[in-house]
Design brief:
The protein has about 270 residues and is of the alpha/beta class. Helix content is about 30%, strand content about 25%. The chain has eight helices and nine strands. Helix 4 links the parallel strand 6 and strand 7. The structure holds hypoxanthine.
Length: about 270
């Protein structure tokens, strides 16, 4: 099993710290089609993943692949423009390495965003969903392997994975901005196939409201690092079998259409 050592994290963190050399108040991972938020940061510095020692490369269309440090409304943030997915073939520890790096740079609050398919038939493409909790259906865990006590606990409590305090702030901001905000359970699957209609029915029976191919490993590592986590999904399509067949271009298109409100929501929360 490929693992990441504290020495590798330290080398990568030192490299990143030399470029993003100001204290950080928050981290944000920008999902499919949402990466434009990074362009709204002021005094920004961009660091491509490819330049960072030991860091995996993002290979997905629509995912840029760089850290962007800067200021959003006077709050210093470190953003990941494009993430690393398990379906790209990286081991879980590497999939969530960006979160560990953020922790090493002092990030204590993280916003995880993603594009997701609706499992809940009351949802509509273009909706935003606050992630209340998740189902880890990747049947993998980024904390499997050697345990380094300096990284946090071996057995991480997942009761309040998504911070109730941040959720209530998000609700308040959405209300003030008049942006409807759904809430629900996010099911994380490996992909890269979309689900079958039978799987979507199964997910509904299991209590999921939306499904996607990311976020879960990042939330787990963030909690081990002691971060406060907020998760927001853009519902880009109805799950398989509910409406028409799915295509990645539709996911990107809906995310693109809704990026204005999404950015306003995240900036308000920040
Ligand atoms: N399924 C899984 N991942 C997704 C979907 C979906 O329907 N839409 C966007 N990401």
């Amino acid at each position: 099993m490929v693992q990441i050592s504290p020495q590798e994290i330290e080398a990568a963190a030192n490299f990143l710290r030399a470029k993003v050399n100001f204290p950080l108040q928050a981290g944000i991972i920008l999902g499919s089609g949402l990466s434009a938020l990074a362009e709204r940061a002021e005094k920004s510095v961009a660091v491509p993943y490819g330049s960072i020692p030991h860091f995996p490369q993002s290979t997905v269309e629509g995912h840029t692949g760089r850290f962007v440090g800067g200021f959003i409304e006077d709050t210093s943030v470190l953003m990941m423009q494009g993430r690393v997915h398990f379906y790209e073939g990286y081991p879980m520890a590497q999939v969530a390495m960006g979160v560990r790096l953020m922790a090493a740079l002092g990030v204590r609050t993280i916003i995880l965003t993603n594009a997701a398919g609706a499992v809940n038939t009351a949802f509509t493409p273009g909706d935003f969903m606050l992630i209340q909790d998740h189902l880890n259906l990747m049947f993998q865990n980024p904390l499997i392997g050697r345990h380094y006590p300096e990284w946090g606990e071996r057995f991480v409590d997942q009761t309040d994975t998504y911070s109730p305090v941040l959720m209530s702030r998000a609700r308040g901001v959405a209300k003030a901005l008049n942006i409807p905000l759904r809430e629900g359970v996010y099911a994380g699957l490996t992909g890269p196939t979309y689900e079958t209609p039978a799987e979507i029915r199964m997910l509904r029976a299991l209590g999921a409201d939306a499904c996607g191919m990311s976020t879960v490993p990042e939330a787990i590592v963030a909690r081990q690092c002691g971060m406060r986590v907020l998760g927001i999904s853009i519902i880009t399509n109805m799950g398989a079998g509910i409406a028409s067949p799915l295509h990645h271009s539709e996911v990107v298109e809906i995310a693109e259409k809704r990026k204005g409100d999404f950015q306003n929501l995240v900036m308000g929360i920040i």
